[in-house]
Design brief:
The chain has about 325 residues and is α+β, with helices and mostly antiparallel strands. It has eight helices and nine strands. The strands form three sheets. Strands 5-4-6-7 form a four-stranded antiparallel β-sheet. Residues about 5-15, about 250-255 and about 260-270 have low confidence and may be disordered. InterPro entries: SprT-like_domain (IPR006640).
């Protein structure tokens, strides 16, 4: 039996651990590609913002705003500047709204206060990285408005703040004018002829009426799964239970010939009869409503309810839907 060699503990092995990256740099995806950031350790407080982004996106935006305001914008912006999420922004990642408040006192000169508000899109800013880059872009707009009082667009004043951010964090993506994000839509309409696709956040295309503008073929509806796959609704619900809400639960109801007193039961071709009370109200409402003592719809329905109960007690159920005569009451 050979002796086992025990290596002595070396403090240098502990000190050689990869350094922890800054919080702003630690918002990359959990599964980096092409060896990105493999030699660095993510900041501990950034893990939950990446892993549970949707539940913590409001806190993430507020934290990033405080960092940008302190390190880039010299605390020009107020600490309580509102940052909201606007679900109506479907293609725009974010926008900055400029506000002006004028106060005219009874005695003295009027004061003008410039305010700003940043809105982020929940449909475009779907990752922590996108929130960071979009918020930095819009914070530069807000700084130009608060500090200089002009809407400079993407002019030299805006570029000055953007370049300052690039000097502080040179490894961040360049603060660009327009984003190039691939917008994740819930639904995709694909042409059955030429294969052209149209992404939508809701079921806004009627596949029974609208056709492709290129080849005049019909569209088919596909669901985009969280894993990036497009599936037909009949298949997606069986694979991912989160998509059951968007899958048809029943086949379309069969056409039933119009017959008085019959409704489609939703179970194929088997019709069912309307409730007896509904038929009773349909046949007798006008007669009861014309009585002089009946002043409102509620009073008419109350009398019809009492009459229907009396008829169910005194007559067989098959005659419950028949009209009544005032002489019997």
């Amino acid at each position: 039996m050979s002796a086992t060699t025990v290596r002595p503990y070396s403090a240098s092995s502990f000190l050689k651990q990869p350094p922890v990256t800054e919080f702003v740099y630690s918002l990359y995806p959990l599964e980096p590609t092409e060896g990105r950031h493999t030699k660095l350790t993510r900041h501990p407080s950034a893990v939950r913002f990446v892993r549970n982004f949707k539940a913590n996106r409001v806190e993430l935006a507020n934290r990033l705003f405080r960092i940008f305001n302190e390190r880039v914008l010299n605390k020009i912006l107020p600490d309580d500047m509102p940052i909201t999420w606007n679900s109506r922004l479907l293609k725009t990642a974010g926008q900055c709204k400029y506000l002006r408040r004028e106060v005219i006192p009874a005695a003295g000169e009027k004061t003008i206060t410039r305010l700003a508000q940043i809105e982020l899109s929940p449909k475009v800013c779907t990752t922590a990285e996108r929130v960071r880059d979009t918020l930095l872009h819009e914070a530069c707009h807000a700084a130009v408005w608060i500090a200089d009082g002009v809407n400079d667009g993407h002019g030299p004043r805006w570029r000055r703040w953007a370049n300052r951010a690039m000097q502080i964090w040179p490894d961040l993506p360049v603060v660009s004018v327009c984003h190039a994000y691939a917008i994740d839509a819930r639904f995709t309409y694909r042409c059955t002829g030429c294969g052209a696709c149209a992404n939508r956040h809701s079921k806004s295309i009627d596949i029974a009426k609208q056709v492709c503008g290129r080849c005049r073929s019909r569209f088919e509806l596909l669901l985009n799964t969280p894993h990036g796959r497009m599936m037909r609704p009949s298949i997606a619900g069986r694979i991912d239970k989160r998509l059951l809400a968007h899958c048809p639960t029943q086949p379309p109801p069969a056409e039933v010939p119009n017959q008085p007193g019959l409704l489609d039961s939703g179970e194929g071709d088997v019709p069912r009869r309307k409730p007896a009370f509904a038929e009773f109200v349909r046949g007798n409402y006008k007669q009861v409503r014309q009585r002089p003592e009946v002043k409102s719809h509620a009073e008419a329905m109350a009398q019809l309810g009492n009459l229907f109960k009396t008829m169910k007690i005194n007559k067989p159920q098959s005659d419950a839907g028949q009209p009544f005569s005032d002489s019997s009451v």
